[in-house]
Structures are given as C-alpha cells and as structure tokens.
Amino acid sequence: MIPRYSLIIPAYNEERLLSRLLDSVDVAREAYGGAGEVEVIVADNSSTDRTASIAEARGCKVVRVEKRVIAAARNGGARVASGEILTFIDADSQVHPRTFTEIDGVLAAGRAVGGATGVTLERWSPGLAATWLIMMPMVLVTGMDTGVVFCRRADFEAMGGYDENVLIGEDVVFLQALRRLGNPRGQRLKRATRAKAVASTRKFDEFGDWHFLPLLFTGIRYLLTRDIGGFADRYWYKPKR
Asked: Which pTM was predicted?
C-alpha cells in the first residue's frame, strides 16, 4: 500500500525528544486513517546516541545521512519516501492531531503549491513573546512559515529538493523556490494554521529567552565577515546534546 503522506524527520542526537514527537505523530496518523496512510522516516544525521534505535523500535523507516547538513538530512529522508505528499518536521517538535487532514484541505483546491502549518511554542515568556512579535510580520508578509512543511512529491523533485549548500535557513530557501515554481501556475504558498505544530524552545532554554534579538546582529556580523559556517556551527551544528 502506497501511503499518501511521508513525514520526514531530520534528527541528530535526538534520543531525549524523538519519542515525544513520535507519540504526537501516532495520534495524528490515527486521526487521519491509520499508519498505512502516513509513513514516518527518520533521517539520522550521523547521531552518536540512540536516535536510530529508538526510531526503529517505533516502526519508523530509518535512513543514515552522513553529511552533517540539515538540508542533506531532509533530502536523504525524501529519497527513500514513497508518499504522494512530502512533509517535514523537526525532531524536537510535536505535530497537531489534525495535521494531515488540514494539509489535505489546503492542497485540495489546487491553488497551493505547498506551505507550512506554523507553530505555537511549548512555553512562553516576555522574551519569547517579543521574539514572536518580531518574526510574525515577516511570516504574514511572505507567507513562509515553519512547523510541518509540505509539498507534492512531483514539485519537490522538480526543484531538486533542499539546497545542500545552505547551512542555515534551508527551509526558507526551500519555500522561496517552491513559491517560484508555483507562480507560473497561479499557485502560492499557504499556511495550514488550524494544525499548528508545537515548537521546542530548547534554543531559548540554552541561550536565554532574550537571546534572539542580539543574535540577529551577530548573524549580520558573521555574514559580513563571510564566516557563516562558524555561526552555523556555534548555534546549530554543535548544540549541547
């Protein structure tokens, strides 16, 4: 049986939080019609912990991706996917129970090339709320969001997937390319916001609830010095886990 959806989870050393995500995925699969409709793929990005064994024990399809680039992990999962619609979610998140039903609704009319569900946060504070208020206008203006990112398999293949030369912000670059693909067809990015994922706040737990504001200026400095690799390593690729 060919599933309608493939849910691809890029994961590096996620033994602590992966089961929480998979619990939420089980609920969403059951609400949609059962496990046969949604295959779950964990793209193990060279983990050194029990990420792969946890995924296998939960019945996920596991693919090892040696290249330590998040875009490469996403592409590695997509290569072994068999679903008509590809969806992507970070391993520290949780999905909404109606995720797949809501995405179906967004795609049904044919006017959406793809999009994302958006997110809410697992906890709130003044610093997190300030960060949210800074980011949301950009989301509303561009239509590019985070959470569960989705598109049709044919469109993913037409674009060549995620750009593996992009170390950070690969999801933004991907959605920009998806929007360009849809424009000539009269399709646009859409948000399935009635099924928002729950985003982890572990970066804020590690770096502080107000860290994102100075981080914006730090990122600009790294860009000007052309040391984006160093910036990516410090914040994304060498986390404390």
From this structure: 0.93
| Contact yes or no for 183/190 (Cβ under 8 A) | no
User: What are the backbone dihedrals phi and psi of residue 210, each rounded to the nearest 5 degrees, phi first?
Assistant: -105, 10
161 is written with which tokens?
Answer: 């997937």
Per-block mean pLDDT, blocks of 10 residues, the chain (241 long): 96 97 98 95 96 98 96 98 98 98 95 97 96 90 92 97 91 95 96 96 93 74 59 71 64
* Helix count and strand count (H, E) for the chain: 10, 9
CA–CA separation, 231 and 168 (whole Å): 9
- The structural domains of the chain, ordered by start, are 5-205 (3.90.550.10)
Q: CA 223 to CA 205: how far, in whole Å?
A: 25
Q: Which amino acid is at 237?
A: Y
Q: What is the pLDDT of residue 223?
A: 52
Report the DSSP beta bridge partners of residue 197.
119
Give the C-alpha separation, 91 to 17, whole Å: 7
HSE at residue 112, side-chain half, CA atoms within 13 A, is 24
